[in-house]
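1st attempt posting a full record on here, be nice pls
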Amino acid sequence: MTSSLAGQLFRMRNIDRVITSERSQKIRASFLFDGRQAADIDMQTIFDIGCDGLGELRKMNRKFDSFASTLFSPAIKDLDRVLQTREENERLDESIRSFLFLMAPYFLTKPAGKALEWLVRRFRIQEFNARDLLAAILPYHETKAFLTMLTIITFETRDMELFGFLVTQRKARRLLDRGTLMAQCVRDRALMTFVCSSVFRACQMGFEYAGLHAFYAMIFSQYITSLASVGGTDVQFVLPFVLDGLQLDGDAQIAAYMVLGTLATRVTLSADALDKTLCAVAQRRADLRAMTMCVVQLVQTQEAALT
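the predicted structure (as tokens):
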């Protein structure tokens, strides 16, 4: 009975959001089109555009095949998520999350844009999946495509403390340059946590790519160098992310070596921290040469902790 009542309340709260649905909008959220232009394009046309994009993505990566029978299936074309149960929406969110992280390497391509247009129209991902959407496309923060998507994202009140600075960016129609992003990460560790957690989640889901590794290495290394000084609390914050990175494979681990090298030049680690770090480096090695260089740098910069 309690579960049934909770489900009814959940649907009632969501029905309040129907006032912004496709039937009541004269201006409609769109990634590809002007808002007024998008309002004149029917659902079937957007569905066809999305399926066309998915078809092209499937040629690039066969992992997209499974979404032809889920998010891009004719059976789901008329689904209105605000009328679904919490459990149904959770399953939908999981499918959308997987698609977004798989799509990330192709974000700047036309096929990805077409597929995203369907997800924006049918599932309102810019509203219901804003955090996952940002997590997937943040490595492209300096591009016009990122800014275009940012202009239609709806932030929940609870997320404004973390993402409020992005509202300022979109109001000014300014690209989010690296300096602005970095300054905000230094001001708010929660944002740095969001960035690193997003990278690790993509890797753990098997959706990593070269640009993601480069983004992680650059943003985290720059974060460390941007700190006025690196104290004990900074090490306690940074080191767990470095150790998590060292547990990954391939280029992700090499990126973690780079971050560790940057950290080692800024602070002398405690004997315990250095011991944990060296053990983590030795446990898994994706690239023997990169690992050796990392160990050499640690020995050179952490001599005090080694004696």
